Amino acid sequence: MGKVAYFVDLQPDLEDFLSAVVKGFSSSRKSLPPKFFYDAYGSQVFDRICATPEYYVTRTEIGLMKDIGAEIGALAGPQNVVVEYGCGSSLKIHALLEALIDPAEYLAIDISKQHLINTVEEIVADYPDLRVGAICADFSASFDWPPEADQSGSRRLAYFPGSTIGNQMPAEAAQFLISVRRLIGEGGSLLIGVDLKKDIGVLNRAYNDAAGHTADFNLNLLRRINNELGASIDLSSFEHRAYFNAEKSRIEMHLESNIDQTVDIDGRTFSFKSGETIHTENSYKYSLAEFSELAEKCGFKPRKAWTDADDFFSIHYLDAR
């Protein structure tokens, strides 16, 4: 059996989490960055969300990947170094690796260290002849190609599944695409999943599953504050709220305080009124034309876009210009 070739640890430290909480709770409109959802427990809960009947994204994307695998392999060609942003579980990368022709290396990037380790170890076990490496990092931050990774000049294929691009504000999404373009270099490509505009009922159900996994995922931010920052927030005093904001074409997730209360964190006190929310995540929905236009502005040339039969989800193959 093979082993992980390298592990680069750029995980943000605890102070980054504390700083983000203090900044977000000090604002007139309280918020928390969605990247902090993904500690070990949050990553596990997200896997449960992906298996719910309401959350169409994962099964639709995987089904579409299987349908178009041969086309992706032909577009990409042989011997790519595959760079996956936000690897999460290994389900989607399996579909891509099976589609590619003799991939040269797999580099996984994720902010959740234990989840990242589990994923790359699984890939090593399933693909013992493939060189596998990992970077534990906030993938929304810009970083250089690690010296431990392939230096042969092999073509780089970035992979960003799950419509995670939708969690970024449009300006943030543009900056991320520009950083990906820089990392993969000329001759590189990006395969990216993008959720599409659709019936509002479908969208609202996807983020309010009956089993309550999305609510648990959202509330886990407060659980992390308690566990890691020594707070004592009563999780039952907050409720999960998710709804589609048609004006901004995005799902918004919030944690709503159901009482007037104060929260103490690291010697600071923050007040919440009943009904006040912490804005925790956006999930922007695009049309095919809107996303292609964004990609072109960020240095990519659209090669092909595919959608499922219901036009719920899209996958875009982009070349770096």
Ends distance: 39 Å
Strand order of the largest sheet: 1-4-3-2-5-6-13-12
Number of E strands = 13
Global Rg: 20 Å
Describe this structure in words.
It is a single chain. With 321 residues, the chain is of the alpha/beta class. α5 (113-126) links the parallel β3 and β4. It has an 8-stranded mixed beta sheet with strand order 1-4-3-2-5-6-13-12, with helices on both faces. A 3-stranded antiparallel beta sheet has the order 7-8-11. The chain has a two-stranded antiparallel ribbon with strand order 9-10. It is globular and about 60 Å long. The chain has helices at 14-26, 40-50, 57-76, 91-99, 113-126, 170-184, 200-206, 213-229, 288-297, and strands spanning 6-9, 81-85, 105-110, 131-136, 156-160, 189-195, 238-245, 250-257, 261-265, 268-272, 277-284, 300-307, 313-320. α2 (40-50) packs antiparallel against α8 (213-229) and α3 (57-76) packs parallel to α4 (91-99).
Attribute tags:
321 residues; alpha/beta; 8-stranded mixed beta sheet; 3-stranded antiparallel beta sheet; globular
Summary, kept brief:
This protein is 36% helix and 26% strand. The chain is built from 9 helices and 13 strands.
SSE inventory with pairings:
Layout: E1 6-9, H1 14-26, H2 40-50, H3 57-76, E2 81-85, H4 91-99, E3 105-110, H5 113-126, E4 131-136, E5 156-160, H6 170-184, E6 189-195, H7 200-206, H8 213-229, E7 238-245, E8 250-257, E9 261-265, E10 268-272, E11 277-284, H9 288-297, E12 300-307, E13 313-320
Parallel strand pairs: 1-4, 2-3, 2-5, 3-4, 5-6
Antiparallel strand pairs: 6-13, 7-8, 8-11, 9-10, 12-13
Helix pairs in contact: 2-8, 3-4
